[in-house]
Amino acid sequence: MPIRRAPRLTEAEVTDEAVYLNRRAFLAAAAAGAATLALAGSQGSAGAGAVPSTRGPLPALRNPRWSTTEPTNRLDEATTYNNFYEFGVDKDDPARLGHLLHPRPWTVQVGGLVRKPARFDVDDLLKLAPLEERIYPLRCVEAWSMVIPWIGYPLSALLKRVEPLGSATFVAFTTLLDPEQFPAQKPQLLGFAGLDWPYAEGLRLDEALHPLTLLTFGMYGQVLPNQNGAPIRVVIPWKYGFKSAKSIVRITLMREQPKTAWNAAAPQEYGFYANVNPTVDHPRWSQATERRLGEFRRRKTAPFNGFADEVAALYTGMDLRRDY
Ligand SMILES: Nc1nc2c(c(=O)[nH]1)N[C@H]1C(S)=C(S)[C@@H](COP(=O)(O)O)O[C@H]1N2
Ligand SMILES: [Mo]
Known about the structure:
Blueprint: H1 11-31, E1 61-62, H2 75-80, H3 93-97, E2 107-112, E3 118-121, H4 122-125, E4 132-139, E5 144-154, H5 155-162, E6 170-175, E7 200-204, H6 205-208, E8 214-219, E9 222-223, E10 233-235, E11 248-254, H7 261-265, E12 289-292, E13 299-300, H8 308-311
Parallel strand pairs: 1-4, 2-11, 5-12
Antiparallel strand pairs: 2-3, 4-5, 5-8, 6-7, 6-11, 8-9, 8-10, 12-13
The structure holds the ligand Nc1nc2c(c(=O)[nH]1)N[C@H]1C(S)=C(S)[C@@H](COP(=O)(O)O)O[C@H]1N2 and molybdenum atom.
């Protein structure tokens, strides 16, 4: 019988543990007279030659075919309550430390099992296909949710450009690895023994090619804020939020199912598929309901986060209780 690695953490559990560890690290650093924890504001600007496209308007027409009609959350809700563990495990860490990330210049390498591997400058990627606005609910595995107007275009436009080989079955996404920009990637100071960096996520190729899967550059009519995954992320609205990797530097087409960050950390808590499913509970909490930010009463969680008509056919013949 194969030996299974014991679960090391859960997304909610690690929060408390990592905060504890961080405070301990802080006290140790303070005792040693190290002032290095004052990360905020310690870095200069990107300099005179910086491309000024890291903030400001990003116009796009709404695509109602692939949008929910639910009311959107406020911008400040979507930019101050975030999961982005590279900045820390508290919900306000990404907003507090997001300025450390420099989203320009930025290149994305697209390769693996493709006929035309390429490195793209993110400003060229922005022009690869027409930008659309998509209103999607974001359902975190922690059982909270919000509705966000994203801006981007289907990931399929980019994947088709590099011409996947017939042997490609999965797509892996890799987030930037740089402890200077992502303070929690510094193991000695703010790290926690949970996720292996860089953050990794993945999809089956047919999921990645689905028109709902959005290569995302903006939200609320603006360029993506750093805490939401600037300059480029994916959004997969029928899956739990952790599948939607932020600040991507590499997209790799593969034959085998890629190793993904949360699944590797706690496989029985975070499946590879991670389809929003109210009938499959997280081992330690129910997924039947969720807390929409700004609402008082919990609401029911919808199968595939409300997109069952669009995506259920991707999973015909699969046991979604086993392949959770
Ligand atoms: N690189 C990276 N991507 C990530 C995460 C992360 O910690 N690191 N957190 C995920 C989780 S758990 C969620 S719920 C969403 C949150 O996206 P938002 O902050 O834009 O709402 O980002 C996902 N993408
Ligand atoms: Mo999440």
